[in-house]
Write a structure and sequence with these properties.
With 113 residues, the protein is an alpha+beta fold. Helices cover 25% and strands 22% of the residues. The chain is built from 3 helices and 5 strands; from the N terminus they run αβββαβαβ. A 5-stranded antiparallel sheet has the order 1-2-3-5-4, with helices on one face. 23% of the residues are buried. The protein binds adenosine monophosphate (AMP) and zinc ion.
Length: 113
């Protein structure tokens, strides 16, 4: 498997790990766009949001709940934060293993570019 995030999930490539369980791994983004920028990924390879299946409803919910919990633990849940999943070219996706961006620690602009 040549996927970068599969390799991060199975420890073949190092990352600044924040959380891991049987289904989900969370680690710091290598090019942070906010004081805290964490990526939450499923261990199982899913290329894009378009490839998510009805059967993945629990897994995708778990990604959201992981982001929410980390925001709380890291202390910026009340100030606010953003979770984003980019899909394909127009969405700005560059790594084709789905990941939820968790951005926090500063006021973020809207709308995004
Ligand atoms: P996206 O553009 O939504 O596909 O996001 C991909 C993200 O992965 C970007 O924010 C990158 O900075 C991040 N990224 C790429 N390579 C690594 C890596 N080895 N470790 C951590 N984050 C990475
Ligand atoms: Zn993968």
């Amino acid at each position: 498997m040549s996927c970068l995030f599969c390799k991060i999930a199975n420890g073949e490539i190092e990352s600044k790990l924040v959380y891991a369980d049987d289904d989900v791994v969370a680690f710091h983004d290598i090019a942070p766009q906010a004081p805290t920028h964490i990526l939450c990924i499923p261990r199982r390879h899913i290329s894009t949001l378009n490839d998510l299946d009805e059967a993945d409803a629990q897994l995708s919910g778990k990604l959201l709940l992981t982001a929410r919990r980390l925001a709380k633990e890291l202390g910026f849940a009340e100030d606010g934060y953003r979770v984003v999943m980019n899909c394909n070219g127009h969405g700005g996706q560059t790594v084709f293993h789905i990941h939820l961006h968790l951005l926090g620690g500063r006021a973020l602009h809207w709308p995004p570019g």
